[in-house]
Amino acid sequence: MSGAVATLETPVLRRPPRWLVPVAVGVVLLAGYLTMRGTATLPHDDEAAPFLAVNEARDWVDSNRNDNPLFLYGVNYVRIYLGELYAAFETVLFALGWPGLIGALGALGWLAGGWRLALLGVGGFAALGVLGVWEASVRTLALVLTSVLVALAVGLPLGVWAGRSARVRRALTPVLDVMQIMPTFAYLTPMVLFFGIGPSSATVATLIYAMPVAIRITALAVERVSPTAIEASASLGATRWQTLRKVQLPMARETIALAINQAIMMALSMVVIAALISAPGLGSDIIRGLSRANVGFMLPAGIAIVVMAIVLDRLTMAAAKRERTAQAAPSGPRRYAVAGAIAVAGVVAATLLPARFPDAWILRVGPPVTEAVNWAKFSWYDVTTAIRNVTSDLLLNPLQDVLTSTPWWLVAAAVLALAWWASGPRPALTALACLLGLALLGLWEHSMATLTTVLVAVTVTLLLGLLLGVAAARSRGFSAVQRPLLDAAQTMPSIVYLLPALALFGATRFTAIFASVIYAVPPVVRLVEDGIRGVSPTTVEAALSAGSTGGQLLWKVQLPMARGAILLAANQGIVMTLAMVVVGGMVGAGGLGYDVVTGFSQHSEFGMGFVAGVGTVLLGIMLDRITQGADRRSSPPSKRMNTA
Predict the structure, then answer these.
(1) Mapping DSSP to helix (H, G, I), strand (E, B) and coil, where does residue 41 land?
(2) Quick one: pLDDT at residue 327?
(3) N or C, where is the chain less crowded by C-beta within 10 Å?
(4) Model confidence over 272-290: pLDDT tens digits?
(5) What is the C-alpha R_g of the chain?
(6) Pick from 274, 295, 153: which is nearest to 204 by CA?
(7) Using CA atoms, how far apart are residues 497 and 306, in angstroms rounded to an integer?
(8) What residues form the membrane-spanning segments (predicted)?
(9) Cα 556 from Cα 561, distance rounded (Å)
(10) Can you list the positions of beta strands (E) in 186-277?
(11) How far is the C-alpha of 584 from the C-alpha of 182, rounded, in Å?
């Protein structure tokens, strides 16, 4: 008798492919667009209620400026004190004379890093005179010193507090997000409203722009101090104040110096924009050159700001690493004696040489540059016009038409789905709230126009950033050639990029995109390069030993493992592009940037400009939340092996 064994097989439930849900959602959204296109749109209204409410608030401030205690005993005193502080810096710097100030920079360079930095300080500040912008450079330096001093006086203590308290850090984070995403133009309007025009309002706008980075980096520096060192200090009976002063701050010194360094860089980029509210210095030349579309006129001022930024950057970073580079300069009394001799030589020279920088030593670079730009403009007219028109007709206009003709609720659903898929539920709800805020503020149509420009600019930026970053990561020679170009590009004020773009392409949206790409590419390249270089050498060697080609190594190992850095690059590219697109409102970019610029320049449109600045912040936070958490998504679940 033969027996049969019955085998019961449990059916295996297979997970649907990971791509199925996004594709299904995309199909549903596309079907919704095709069937409901042109309905439930929100056209722009110049008389929207939020605009009128802000105008009324402005009128109240204008009427009560000289009566309300808030202004009499608060705002007015801040304006007076900041004005006096700026005047003090300006007086001291001009009193040194151009040889004395150059000697002072040489002495600081010697103290910070030796003879190389001394030569950089002397040569860099001498170049300001050779460019013919000495007096404007001194005024810019005085404004930067005033702004950075106040920003650090407030920002460093807040950063230390945030680094020691998670509760304080959580409370400050949204405020800092708004301060960093707010377009630079949007700072100017309330500054004029409360502080008038001149150095005081420019100082407040600049320090607000420079303070967030100082707070963030300082908090990070204090937070990262070794817990073991803190516990050891506490076990020896040190109080919290003693631990902070003798352990945490000394161990965080280099990173705090980076906070100072970055605050100076941010201040230098802001003082150019602040020229629109009569900030003294180099910015006024750049603004005048921009208004005349004259590259040669503003180029000396633009180069001067880059030179000043490089000198101050190298000095502050070298001062932080002085102990590591002590061999570069003698130590002890001799070191200070040489620095004193350099400074005294400058002061003595100031008594012997003319008070003004000699005209015979000035290099006139403006006229030949203007001729070269005009030649390029007319010689390349057909090419630049074709590039601009093709991009507008085939990409910008169709994409903007899709976004503005789609029902607002369908756009909101698409943003919610994308953010949920990319970053999770909480960022998705935040992104949705920001988008709905744009609708409530009456900025929907112009926000979609700005989003169009940002999406195109970010796409081009990421493509270029990936190509250049990968090339730099795979070739140290290419990286060495590219790095100084990236350094110069990152120190150049954002508004300077508009001049060559305007000269080549005229006043259009494409001009803002072109300038945005140049402005945003350097940090993207750096992040991509660092991410690929950060892939474990062991992993790379294992892939090569398994027979992977260079292309396979890149696509299947390095890029996937550098995903976090690449997504961070995308995040930074979006934020920087958005900031530049708003500045591009000066050259015909349209959208929210145009609203901000119009609100600043026309008194009757103040409300629209201010609200558009708030709208830009909401748009930036929305895009930031979509990309910010993408690198924290869980990896796809591994396939289960079923054996019979």
Answers:
(1) coil
(2) 43
(3) N
(4) 778 877 788 888 888 777 7
(5) 28
(6) 274
(7) 13
(8) 19-36, 85-110, 117-134, 140-163, 255-277, 297-315, 336-357, 428-444, 450-473, 494-522, 567-594, 606-623
(9) 9
(10) none
(11) 15
Tokens 């109240």, located at residue: 60
- Find out whether 195 and 252 touch, Cβ atoms under 8 Å: no
Residue 495 to residue 511: CA distance in whole angstroms: 12
Vertex 71 angle, CA 271 and 214, to 5°:
35
Burial class (CB in 10 A: 0-12, 13-18, 19+), 351: exposed
DSSP code of residue 75: I
Q: What are phi and psi of 288, to 5 degrees?
A: -65, -40
Task: Specify the pTM.
Answer: 0.75
Collapsed DSSP state (helix, strand, coil) of residue 585: helix
Instruction: For residues 104 and 95, give the distance between their C-alpha atoms in angstroms, rounded to a whole number.
Output: 12
Other Cβ atoms within 10 Å of 487 Cβ, number = 16
SS3 for 371-420 is: HHHHHHHHHCHHHHHHHHHHHHHHHHHHHHHHHHHCCHHHHHHHHHHHHH
Residues 89, 203 contacting (CB under 8 angstroms): no
The span from the CA of 129 to the CA of 447, in Å, is 44
| Rounded Cα gap, residues 280 and 393, in angstroms | 42
Name the nearest CA neighbour of 183 among 273, 50, 298. 273
Alpha-carbon distance of 340 to 479, in angstroms, equals: 39
CA distance linking residue 134 with residue 395, whole number of Å? 45
d(CA 408, CA 403): 9
Which helix (H) or strand (E) segment holds residue 321: the answer is none
The pair of structure tokens assigned to 329 is 């300069």
Q: Report the SS3 class of residue 213.
A: helix
**Span 320-362, pLDDT tens digits:** 665 444 444 455 677 788 888 888 988 888 888 888 888 888 8
Cα dihedral: 207, 213, 216, 218 (round 10): -80
User: 26-30, 128-132, 241-245 — which is least confidently predicted?
Assistant: 241-245
**Which residue in this structure is represented by tokens 């040889």?**
99
**C-beta atoms surrounding 121 within 10 Å:** 27
CA distance 92 to 588: 41
What does 134-155 look like in DSSP terms, one character per residue? Answer: HHHHHHHHHHHHHHHHHHHHHH
Structure tokens, 419? 């953010």
- Paired tokens of 621: 């936070």
